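User: Can you help me understand a structure? I only have the sequence.
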Amino acid sequence: MAYPKRPQGSRSLPQRKKLLAIAGRLFWQKGYLATSIDDIAKSAKMNKASLYYYFKNKADVLYELASATMQALIDQALPILNSSLQPEEKLKVFIVKHLTFGLLHLGLSGIGQMERRNLPPKLLQAYIRMRDEYEGIFRKILEEGTKQGKFQCRDVELASLFIMGFLNSTVQWFDKTGKLSPEEIASEAFAFVSDMLRIKAGPGPLNVGKKGP
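Assistant: Let's start by predicting it. Here is the structure, written out as tokens:
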């Protein structure tokens, strides 16, 4: 499915990525509403007029941050869904990748969750379509496991909402200086979900890497 995207020339792409990283950090630290275009320009050591060469406005920056993150999640989830892994293995890989990506990229992954309400209506709708596509992938994994009798799940759609809400909440309390690493939190999260779905024999350790896409 195609989503709104501004044209990106090869020369401007590195600078756009730099500006998005700066904006993401500021939005995460100060909040979207408390961050101005001037703040982003000053942090990037450029004038405001130059920033408008890359982005139409602050909402454009927010949408690119949120949609790029969601697209990265979709791109990493589809191969899991379409793989030959057993449903419980797919579930573990999905959860571990989802959480490690989110917790290793806090200034990007949490933006869509926390600030999407500030998007203009059309861009908000586009973001929600992407989110629904991603959550639909997860729901299909749950459906597969439930049909095969691997998961005990009375209402797949409701279970999907519960679990995704639980997973997404981690970006709000995770402390990178805390005692648990993103990988350890992901492992604990899978154990929790496994108990919730009453998976009797969970898969062994999987080499899913320590970094997101």
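Now, to help you interpret it: The chain is about 65% helix and 0% strand. The chain has two domains: 12-55, 58-196. Let me know which part you'd like to focus on.
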